[in-house]
Design brief:
The chain is mainly α. It has one domain: MetI-like fold. The chain has 10 helices and no strands.
Amino acid sequence: MELLIDSFLSAVLLVVSLDPEMMKIVGVSLRVSCASTLSAALIGIPLGFAISFSEFNGKRLLITVFNTLLALPTVVIGLFVYAFISRRGVFGPLDLLYSQTAIIIGQVILIVPVVTVFTISAISRIDERYRRTALTLGANRRQSAWIVFREARFGIVAAAIAAFGRVIAEVGISMMLGGNIKGFTRTMTTAMALEYDKGAFILAVALGLVLLTLSFGMNLLFHFFQERAGR
């Protein structure tokens, strides 16, 4: 118990002092997570709109597939991407393995279903009469989609926040595709795992405090936008 208390107090001091090593790790995590979330949003939001506004055979099945992918283990994604970008893989010559780009690719695959499903959910809450009225008044498909987007914007923002919260705390993809290289691909979660294995708890606890603070902030934003979307 004494070890835990001492580690916690030392970790708090580390956070307050903005330790350079800790900040570098936090910076890598934020950089990778933000890039992954932005890329996934650029893919998932239009995809969610396309699925919502289209009628085709198998639509319900496709939505079920995306819902199933929400539970896709990060280790499976890591193995899948590794097979393609390793030296013997199709994209081996690009030398992507153990880089931030590799982590971003894996994380995008992880959260595109999150953004897509939440976008579909946000659009489904919008009264169909908005779109029909816009079409009746002479709006084309793009204009009517923009009207629906404005009405569903809070739910869509919540989708992006949920996706960011998913990747900022994941460890499997970051470890398998990034290699936990100090100062380059070492994220908060992989650093915490490494420090735990070494028996050095102070930095691990400090990073845990930062991660919990970020997660708490993301959850506050998520619930705020979810409430706005439900009004």
